[in-house]
What we know:
There is one protein chain. Helix content is about 50%, strand content about 10%. The protein is α/β, with parallel strands linked by helices. The protein folds into two domains: about 5-160, P-loop containing nucleotide triphosphate hydrolases (Rossmann fold), CATH 3.40.50; about 165-340, no CATH class. A five-stranded parallel sheet has the order 2-5-8-1-9, covered by helices on one side. A two-stranded antiparallel ribbon has the order 3-4. The chain has a two-stranded antiparallel sheet with strand order 6-7. A hairpin with a 2-residue loop joins strand 6 (about 120) and strand 7.
Amino acid sequence: MRPLHILQILEREFAGAAAAAHTPVMLWGPPGVGKSQIIAQIARSHGVSLIDVRLSQMEPTDLRGIPFRSGDRVEWSVPALLPDAARHGPRGILFLDEITSAPPTVTAAAYQLILDRRLGEYRAPDGWVIFAAGNRYGDRGVTYVMSAPLANRFTHYDIEPNLDDWVEWAHAAAIDSRVIAFLRFRPDLLFDFDLARNPVAFPSPRSWEYAHRALVKFDDSPELLLDALQACVGPAAGVEFKAFLDNMHELPDIDAIARGESAQMPRGIDLQYGVAAALVRRAVQVRDLPHAAVVYGHILTYAKGFPQREMGVMLVTDLHRSIGRPLIAVPEFSEWAATITDLMLYDLKFASAH
């Protein structure tokens, strides 16, 4: 499933806790695809606590607690890491990460917690949900086959990379527009996990975020930049991305386009992807400013000038994903839409708010 749909499902699961309808969820996916990030996004959006438990680093007693004598009985201390309404709040997310990398003795200790929301005398607060994540068995990670009793305690979803979803997240997260443009140009490199070619560093949504960080640190040091990019996304993808970056100096003036001034359309398809991503970034930057609608209009006017109208459709689609309804209210939107009415390959769905 694409990350956007996974996010919507987990949002419903989080809301379902209030109606006692929550079911623990297990996310399966390759490394670097964004499983943990989706969970963190839900916690941030609701302003609740996220307890991230790495089961692969734990012993059974870390979860079950340590026994101690109380009179004639033996009782179990409650681990401080487990959700407590007084300390962590009445609502939140207990995230059991790397669960497929945990030895069976540890996952067995979690059975009761996952199914019954209990561990001995401990009971999880009603407003807390339980999500888990792990790599698939063929992803070259340290994984154990999930036992049938544990698997039956979850609902299971497979998450796969999706470029549109990643681009929407990247614009919101202020990822360098050149990274976005390159992946629009080479969408097959969003995720390329091949043991033969990329045994260590490889392209993934996570490593492209690292490439963005490399640009922040090494963009002014060209003698170091290539090595830094290859360290993030692998040798081949790093070389391609560096060559792409070397051409970006030929981009038209983005500020001039935003002001409505005449600007030449670049000939190279790579540069067209570059200018499209840069214009979306500019629209996001001015979203809360008084002149935002004026900038949107100028970008829409420019979008009509792409030699391939599909490129303009991609630009406006990304704009709508990042901005939403305010884009449709701009007069230039109707003018632009009239130029692509015969393009039936795209389902833009602009009538609904994002």
